[in-house]
TrEMBL record:
Belongs to the TspO/BZRP family. The keyword Membrane applies. It comes from Triparma laevis f. longispina. It is a multi-pass membrane protein. It is found in: Membrane. The lineage of its organism: Eukaryota, Sar, Stramenopiles, Ochrophyta, Bolidophyceae. Its main location: membrane. This is Uncharacterized protein.
Amino acid sequence: MRFCSLFLLLSYFLNANGFHLALSASSTRPQFIAATNSPHSPTFSAATNHPLPPTYIARATSLNSVALTTSCFIVGSILGGCTGTPLVIKATKSWYNNIDLPAFTPPDAIFAPVWTVLYASMGLSASRIYLEYSFNLPLKLFTSHYILNLLWAPLFFGLKKIRLAHCLNYLLLSTLALTIKCFYSLNKLSSLLLLPYLIWLLFATRLNSKICEMNPTKNGYNNAMLEAGLIKLQNDARQRAGL
């Protein structure tokens, strides 16, 4: 019973009609499909030895297709977000905690689980639009926003361009707000799934702004670059000294 309840809930989030399909399927007696070698042979139920209705087979196929597409979107979104993880880990273990940070800076351990949940919700949101409208203009806008999102970590943690990354934050906010508006006119749940990401992005923009204020960039150089350079010199010195 617990599995059925979870299955019904998951089906609802996968597709607007998924809940009705799952309910229809779960309300019937469990049936097992017997395989046949002929593509023209009817599909029979092993429980009743009667041909299964074409609508039942179509519903099962549709539900499997929805689940597969949704899973691909979610997993793909999370994996894409992981591309900047090595840069983030390297920075947080070196120069990032040496620069001036505001008091409301979250612990480093918070970022990984938060972004995993956010990327998953982004993938689920996009999958619902794709399943109903294919790759339409709002989904193309979302894809552009997603690519910009992936550029932020290399810009901030990789190149230490903290002021340029801050400018990118505002571009992310504007494109996300437009995406949510477009999604809302097509699928309200898809737009609601992006709200936690919007809230976090607002917080991240404020955090980035404060970091820029506390570590000003002058002539293209900032404290992050200084700290990273000092650490590199220390490591080079250790290597030469054989330490």
